[in-house]
Amino acid sequence: MSLLSNLFGYNRPGPGVRPDEPRKKGAARWFEILGRDLGSFFKAGLLALLGFLPFMLLLSLAIASHAVIFVIAAGVVGGALAMPQIVGMADTLLRSLRDEPGFWWVTYRRAWKRNWKGCLVPGMVCGLVIAGQLFTLFHLRPDNDNLLMLVVMLILGMALSVGLTFYIVPQLALLDLPFLQILKNSVLLFLGYLPRTAGAVAVQVVYWGAYLLFYPLTTLVLPFTNFWLPMSLTLLILYIPLDKSFHIEETIRKMRAEDLAARSDAPAEAWPPAPAAAPLPDAGQTGEDAGPETDEPAGPETDEAAGPETDEAAPAEADKTPAEADKAPETPADEAPEASGDDTAPRA
After folding, report:
1. N or C: more exposed end of the chain, with fewer CB within 10 A?
2. How open is the CA angle 160-50-5, to the nearest 5 degrees?
3. What are phi and psi of 16, to 5 degrees?
4. Residue 165 scores a pLDDT above 80
């Protein structure tokens, strides 16, 4: 993993975003995030494509052999293997859409570890549905009397599946909910924002329709455009409904503010540290020139000058031995000065 990090620069920070820069809309917004995070999109999409290969191979085998068992294998095994990488790519795209800075590989790996278990069942269900629909599409007989009705029903079913899938995937990346609740939310979002849903489905239909139309030439382009190109456009269309429904950016801002407040209140992170107590002068010494000025012992002068103060401040010090008097008193930890709130704020 360290070899990949060094080779592709996974630990390098991406270009920043000015905090006062207004967000663009539409195509300008897409080109903005594309120019800023294209490298991260490509790497996340390439990992998603690699994770999707078992599904594609098993489904191709099912279509070629006309065996339903390979359809089930493609849906269960291939879908479960593909979904964690697809959700990881969606997490990368969503972070770019909300202008979140960070190291791509660090955030991708953290999101993948957090979500992979929750992606298995949704991946199996979505994989079975999509694999069954594609298998049926390639096995329609031209001499069927109900061919037109079957084609229309199949197209509508695939549009519903694709639309629901692209509401399911962002929820897997952002929320910790049961799959049935995620599915219910997806149906409500699909119907509640139908124009945007239709636009997102149209993007997928055009992209994958062109891929099938010009197959096998498009296999040369697929490693470069893979999944990031259609999904970036799809999530750009669906991001506003998702943010309105789940308050994504507002929730993340609150979580960051709470985290910063917790860090600033922690005593272990106080900065600058409390200054050390200055050592006290040795008992019996009043200055560098005190010895040469008089031949008399310094004891009587010290007793006359400092005696009253010693009696008022700390009478117990008169009983100390010379060895004990040379030691500087320890400063209790409770008396250390506290750092101000401005000094303890962590850096951005």
Report:
1. C
2. 125
3. -85, 170
4. yes
Domain range for 165:
2-14+22-266
Q: Which two tokens stand for residue 139?
A: 């096995």
Q: Tens digit of pLDDT for each residue in 169-222?
A: 999 999 999 999 999 999 999 999 999 999 999 999 999 989 988 988 898 999
- This prediction's pTM: 0.69
Q: Is residue 93 part of a domain?
A: yes
Please give the tally of structural domains in the chain.
Answer: 1
Give residue for tokens 């103060």.
309
Structure tokens belonging to residue 302: 């010290």
Q: Can you tell me the distance from the alpha carbon of 24 to that of 30, in angstroms, rounded to the nearest whole number?
A: 8
- The DSSP code sequence of 98-113 is TT--SBHHHHHHHHHH
Question: Model confidence over 126-152: pLDDT tens digits?
Answer: 999 999 999 998 888 888 888 889 888
| Among 206, 17, 173, CA closest to 99 | 17
